[in-house]
Amino acid sequence: MRWRLYLTEPLDATENMALDEALMLRARTSGEYVFRVYGWSEPTLSLGRNQRAVGVFDKQIAECNGVAIVRRLTGGRAVLHHREVTYSVTGPALHDTLRTSYAGINRILLAALQSLGVRAALAHARSERFPPPASSPCFELPAEGEIVLGARKLVGSAQVREGGAFLQHGSILVDDDQSRVPELSSVSIPHAAPAATLRDALGSAPSLHDVAKALFSAVRLHADADAAPLHADAQLHRATRAARTRYVDDSWTWRR
Prior knowledge:
Largest sheet: 6 strands, mixed
Number of helices: 7
Strand content: 15-25%
Radius of gyration: 17 Å
Helix content: 25-40%
Structural class: alpha/beta
Mean pLDDT: 92
Low-confidence stretches: none
Distance between the termini: 38 Å
Strand order of the largest sheet: 10-11-6-2-1-12
């Protein structure tokens, strides 16, 4: 399996989501896996693909709080992207399953975090049924196999598979801003218990570049020793521009 490593500077919500979609399209023809690490140019609430937003979240309230809203191509629940590190992994989805690719990516994430000194682990199976996508934050409860610090979720991830390729998004919290999610709603949303953060684990906040370096080292250790940086070409830029039309369209963001 050939892997590429891609660190991008913070972009706005539509550019981040469009670039990830373009990378998934690229995987269908290139046969390569891309591990991307990035940040956001403004605080952004991302909604899961099938999460209800109409009558729950309020665009005007979010704007007054300086928060953009975007809907992801992947599923799951709401995440406030601000003081965190986001990753995406794209690749062909012809010879594995969602479960096996998810486990392989988590192995990379776990190794990277442990190399930074984080005493992270994988969550065990829960006895109760996991709730469907709702208005509460993604980091409220860890699902089986997700990365936790003690009993609290540290990394939230979701994957979509389409047309022979997959995209997995994930957020690694540096500080806990998820308590702000209820402030962006026009209805009452219960406040979740605090999520785990890298600051909790390390006593200080690592930079985006520090976390990216650890993640890329883990890719080389566990997936492809020859993984090389990805240099965006004209084709990727064109695909990103084309994909952007989805994420600027309110009929997508507020589709349900």
